C-alpha cells in the first residue's frame, strides 16, 4: 500500500504523510477569482493546467438520468452521502495525481456562494458539479462534466495532454513510447524508421478535444510497452496545424480515433473506434495474418515456495 512502507516506524510514517500532504497542498492551488485564475494560466506558460470545480454540497453525475424517488428523509440522506463520497474519491485522485505529475499545474475552485467565485464559475461555463477542465496557454482543451468516470478522466487527461508519466506508462513519458507526429515530414520519418515487415507500425489518428481519442490513449500507451520490439506506435493530432489537417484529408480520415496499420511503410489495414478490447484484437489479428506470435507476457517475480514447516505453522495458527 502507498500509505505504508516496509521497516517504517509509526512516527516516521506520520512525518512522511504530513510532508506529502503539505506537498499536495502546494501543488493544488485554490483560486477565488477570475484574476487569480488568469494569473495562474499565465504563470503556467506551456504547461498543462487542470482546473477542478467542485462543491462541498453538490455532486452530480453529469448524465441525463431521472432522480431516484426518495420517500423518506433517511433515503435522501443516504443518497446524498453516497454521491458526496464519489466526489471525495475524485478529490483524492486529483491530489495523488498532482503529487505524481510535477509537470502539470493543478487549480481548485470551490463553489461556496461567494460572488467572485460564482462569477468565475459562470465565466468558465461550468453548469455541472464537479467539472474538470484542461487548459494550455490559456486555451480550453477539454472538459469532463460530472462525477461519472471522472477518476479515470483525471489520468486520461494528464496522459493525453500533459505527457505525464503514470503507472500505465510504466513511469515513462508517453512521448517516449508513442511518437508524436505534427507534420508531414514527421509522418514520413515515422514510417521510414522501420523497414522490417515483421514489425507492425500503428498510427493513431486523433483530434485534440475528441473524448473517444482521450479515452483510448492509455491503451495505446500500454500496448506500446507490451509490443515493444514487435510494433511501433505514433500519434497524429489532426487539428494542430495546416499540415496535419491536410494529412487528415489525404489519409481519408472520416472518424476518430482511426488506427492505420503499416508494415515497412505500406498500409496493410485500418481500425476505427475507441474500444480498447477491439484495438487489441485488431493488432493481434494483424500479427496472426503474418504468422507472428503475440509478444510474451511480462516477466514477474517468482514466488518462493513455502516450506513444509511453514505450512504446518500456518495451519496451526488457523486452528
UniProtKB/TrEMBL annotation:
SUPFAM superfamilies: Thioredoxin-like. The lineage of its organism: Eukaryota, Viridiplantae, Chlorophyta, core chlorophytes, Chlorophyceae. This is Thioredoxin domain-containing protein. Residues 283-292 have a biased composition (Low complexity). It comes from Chlamydomonas schloesseri. GO terms for molecular function: oxidoreductase activity, acting on a sulfur group of donors, disulfide as acceptor. Residues 1-23, 283-319 are annotated as: Disordered. Gene3D superfamilies: Glutaredoxin. InterPro entries: CDSP32, Thioredoxin-like_sf. PANTHER family: THIOREDOXIN-LIKE PROTEIN CDSP32, CHLOROPLASTIC (PTHR47578). Residues 303-319 have a biased composition (Basic residues). Residues 10-23 have a biased composition (Basic and acidic residues).
